[in-house]
Design goal:
heterodimer, A: 166 residues, 6 helices, 0% strand, B: 103 residues, Helix Hairpins, elongated
Chain lengths: 166, 103
Amino acid sequence: MTVSFLILAVLTVAGMAAAMGLRNAVHCVLALTVGFAGVAALYLQLGAQFVGFTQIMVYVGAVAILAVFAIMMTHSPTPVQLPAYSSRWAWGIVVAAAVFSVLAWAIRSGTASSQVLPPQPDIDVQQIGEALMHRFVLPLEIMGLLLTAALIGAVVIAMDRKEEPK
Amino acid sequence: MSSLQSYLLLSSLLFSIGLAGALTRRNAILVLIGIELMLNAANLNFIAFWRYGPNPSKLTGIMFAIFSISVAAAEAAVGLGIILAAYRHSKTTDLDQMNSLKG
């Protein structure tokens, strides 16, 4: 466990905990971008450069902006201060803590500690592109179909149908 | 403690943070963001297992992570569209007030 891993882990956990804990929704999304960038830096540390930059482009660039747009569009004009947490929030914390303790117990008692770090693989974008075009071409096509369907579906769902009779 | 173990512990901690957020927040958008955090934790697991696995040059973990990120992006777009439609219908994103499926 290196110092850089510790710094990135603390940054990521702090960003994501703030994203889930702050009261103002816009502040939550700002903290969320910090957490996503921390995860991208962890990918870079693990040697997956392409996934790291994809993470920055998709999550920091697209998902966070989309969430900010959604928060602005659903912002209520009346300044009613609603509680930020559900009425049974303690049960949520208990369930999450139980899940974490079970996962941590499984990780500590598993065989993950016997794994040694293999030498750094030499992965460049050309290899990823060739793998996507040969070995993984069917998943790539299915993913394109899924993204097209999701794009059209999101537009259709969010469209404002004012002219239609109710 | 090995480094794979620390990555797995970090990702399970991120998963639990996302789960806690998805279970406790009242704003529907923040619940969706909590689900995104859980997906991110799974992606971190993919990459960590790829790096510490026996055959990193076969790129399987990277492909899994790329496809998982694409599915997460599609899910975010559709989820936020559904939240916008529900907001237009019930004029709130508060999940404690959205207690009816009837239109």
